[in-house]
Design goal:
single chain, 5 strands, about 20% strand
Length: about 160
Amino acid sequence: MATAVTFNYNSEVGLYWNLLKGLSSSVKTELVNLLQGSLKTDKPDNADKQHQKDYYEILDKFLTYSKYGEKWDGENAVPLTEKVKNNFSELLNKIDKKLLSGMTIFPEINGTLLIDSTIKEAGICLGNDTFSYYITENDVISGQDNIPFTVKKLIDTIKKING
């Protein structure tokens, strides 16, 4: 069942909407709720609300970073590539929100996206066709480079980091 959504409050919302056109309708509806300020995410009173808060913070950052243009860092940074935006949108469509709890994202100057753990020293670099990850535990760094991108492999890697 499709959800009808109308925008009449801010022209930037239309821009955001176009940037994230690859998202599922349920994620888009959640995003609209976030943009309209109808979600209360500032003081979670249980774990589910904390997961929800973390998820919406990632969505908000993704919207912001998706708007970055050439030289967004004041030097030679390039914007997130369309393929990276599509890959991350695919992830948002399929991942259990709880798995993104304790994670944040940052754009990289080469057009890739860093998915970083705020709980442990670990991160994922999401590229066009591949991703890489690292985990540091007990002063030992482990990880893997150039993993062919599939949503399942990316979700499995996030589970490994959160595990």
